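During the second year of the project, the team shifted from modelling isolated chains to modelling whole assemblies. The rationale, set out in the original proposal, was that interfaces cannot be judged from single-chain predictions alone. As a representative example for this report, we include one of the complexes processed in the last quarter. Its constituent sequences, exactly as entered into the pipeline, are reproduced here:
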Amino acid sequence: MSATTQQTLPPPARRRSRGAAGDTGFRVLAGTAALLVLILLGATAAAMFWGGLPALRAFGWHFFVGVEWDPVAKRFAALVPIYGTLVTSAIAMLIAVPVSFGIAVFLTEVAPTWVRGPVAAAIELLAGVPSIIYGMWGLFVFVPFMADYVDPFLDAALGPLPVIGALFSGPPMGIGMLTAGIILAIMVIPFVSAVMRDVFTLVPPSLRESAFALGATRWEVVRGVVLPYTRTAVVGGIFLGLGRALGETMAVTFVLGNAHDFSISLLAPGNSIAAAIANEFTEADSDIYRQSLIALGFLLFVVTFVVLAAAKLMLLRMARREGT
Amino acid sequence: MSSARARALHRRRRVVNLLGLGAATLATLFGLVWLVWILGTTLWNGAGAFDAKLFTEMTPPPGEAGGLLNAIVGSAIIIALGIAFGTPVGVMAGTHLAEYAHGTALAEVIRFVNDILLSAPSIVIGLFVYALVVQPTGHFSGWAGGVALALVMLPVVVRTSDETMRLVPATLREAALALGAPKWRMIVRVVWPAARTGIVTGILLGIARISGETAPLLFTALNNQYWTVNPANPMANIPVVIFQFALSPYDQWHSLAWAGALLMTLVVLVLSVGARAALRRRG
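Output from the structure prediction step:
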């Protein structure tokens, strides 16, 4: 009995070993590919850090707080683009958050069922439009619109006011941080509203129905039940939009004006980290110029990483609660 | 509470409700207005500049008429390189996450990082590939552009293939393994075919994404006003040509930029809408 087993065993054993070799090879391939994702992140951060380090060494902390950007004298300090990135993103979020919230409420509470699909798809379409199209449209259509209608109005209405007047004074050129911020808002609205809509639908029907049964209006259900239940994830969605706004390049490059003079006015030409890199990197004619731009890229990478990681953690918390 | 006060409160709550829901409706209209405005402008200006010369002539020198042939071919080659580099790595990484590392802490970390890369600024990818490929080789090239686009596409493919493979029922895997198939054959012959629609959709979404990307190409593929199909040279491509032409002072260049913009928007929207529709039908 044992002899016959011995005789018939070899073929399957050989097959199994060949299968095992294939298994090991395949497993190693798949594992390497997955590790590549981690390596990609680490290598990007490291390359930006080493590439920008000479500029950070040369200029120190002054790099982040000074305003002179002088390729001829080879002196670089980046407050103007940093300020531009922060201000345009802030304007974008001021507009995008309430609008996205409204869209999410409309899609989950107001619209009849047959309207929801097409409207959601249309808003999603905004996310599909390439960012350079936003930039071109911004430059040829929206900038003249702002220069002709919005800027003069703001200058006349708000310019004379104390304190905030400084934000809205200046020649009505159309280009500037306000225009860039509005375009960024349009770009992030589909991302933020999609997250909000998705988490709104996760609210247990029994909770909503209890509130309705107590006589709450739809708006009161949104304010009193839906929003508190989804708060963490809603903030996560907002951070996701913020991460996108901070790093967006082409749309703002067209309409910011690539100025390196500091101006407090939202109507004056400005700059942003991404726009400065896009405009100047290939034309940078000295090592320190290029290194300064890479240092800016490093800063942008770190800031967006932190913002996006925070967003992801908040969304995961919501998902985990759903899972339990 | 007197009945007059109760009525007043009731009315106030109804007014607040109407205002809130009305504002939500207005917000939706606000979002849709931009979509119509942007797509309408692109269609109008692009269609006006659309003609056969677009596909038969090179990008012209300043102030002359011409087409976008070299940019269209260049874009196609760079995107094809991006797909060739990005897809196998992406699908294999997704396979690792769904089939081998399922439930491990490392898989969670990789998913987390991948989701961040999904939204990371693409201009930083451009800078990275500049340091990785352009600086060592000493010149801009189509290869560098392809690598940059592959890195942009990778997270999209990883995420969708991971997610759809995890949806494949465990019974299918067990049936294959019970028949004696080695794990890798089980994955290739059972899991991949079962998850095919999702994986292909992810690849299509990735292609849509890289077809519209400009920032990673600015310092990698750069631009080239002449005909080339050799990726070792700097290559013309639609997004960078649009960027350069739109910011120029010449009318002919502007209209070519609009034509390129329309072409690019059509490709991107058809790909992404088609892929999403396929995904939805399956879901």
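Chain A has a mean pLDDT of 90. The longest strand of chain A covers residues 69-70.
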